[in-house]
Amino acid sequence: MTQDEIQFLQEFGRRVRYYRKLQALTQEQLGEKANVGYKYIGEIERGRKRASIIILLRLSQALQISLADLIHFPIKTGDEQTRYMQLIMRLMENRNTNNLKKAYQLLRVCLKED
After folding, report:
1. What is the pTM of this model?
2. Which of 51, 68, 85, 97 is most exposed, with the fewest beta carbons within 10 Å of its own?
3. Topology (CATH) of 3-110
């Protein structure tokens, strides 16, 4: 596997974990909704498994996001904007729903979003 492929799997896993936690789902709950074993979900989140297109579709449906949203992220990490987006995602990864809501509200205020 190439370095880009390894990086893609790791970023994809972070993205699955991010959306799963955003919906306050456990790996078991996501697995049930997507008809995928929870251990497989864990392996995907750690960037250790390659998911088929059907699994990607199931995950996107279970997470109630588009397939494009699930897999669209920059692979190269050289630019500053990408680096900060990744830092924010990593910071939010292991937070509970209440903390995620607070962070979202804080960002909206800081960015003056309605």
Report:
1. 0.65
2. 68
3. 434 Repressor (Amino-terminal Domain) (1.10.260)
